[in-house]
Amino acid sequence: MPSSNSWLSRHRNGAFYTLALILVATLVCGGVTAAVHWGMTDAFAEADAKLDESKGGAQRALLFPDATFEKVSAPAVEGLVSVYKTDSGDYVFDVASKGYHGDVEVMVGITSAGKVAGIQVVAEDETDGIGTNALTEDYFGTFTDLDASGVLTVEEPGSGETKVDGVSGATFTTKAVVADLNIAFEAYAQMGGK
């Protein structure tokens, strides 16, 4: 058999040849991955939006079970994530404020009569058995039928503030829930509520 004296045949078992093959394979794989990502970005974003909407839709339905929801333009209020209005004039405000370990995001339902209809947890990372004690139906129930106006506080109230009860041992989370309610109240007022 004739032997080839080309540079490639002489160095095919060397480190440089192996490195060149690895680089070519990496470039090809990276190019394919980038092309798929670029081509599928819109589809991924749309799928993520649909998933987020389905999760949020279920939580909104817990606040107003028989309602149809429409996303409406949200006022510029820090901590306000989104606003939905029902066919009967009720609102659901998705709001977030700082808790102990991160943001405590909740949905606050406010009726067309300007009363708190309920609260649903969207996302939180509070300490189990401590901070989460302020994220219970029992605690949220203390706000049901409360006027959605003014400013709430768990400390000594100042002028125009209303003192509400906190949850012992869950100070940071309690303050986050109260801050979330205050964000929803401010947004509600800017949208023409009380």
UniProtKB/TrEMBL annotation:
UniProt GO MF annotations: electron transfer activity; FMN binding
Keyword Lipoprotein in annotation: no
PANTHER family, per database record: ION-TRANSLOCATING OXIDOREDUCTASE COMPLEX SUBUNIT G
Gene Ontology biological process terms from the UniProt entry: electron transport chain
Protein name: FMN-binding domain-containing protein
Source species, domain of life: Bacteria
Statement: the UniProt record of this protein carries the keyword Electron transport: yes
GO CC field: plasma membrane
InterPro entries associated with the record: FMN-bd (IPR007329), Ion_transpt_RnfG/RsxG (IPR010209)
Residue ranges occupied by any FMN-binding domain in the UniProt entry: 99-188
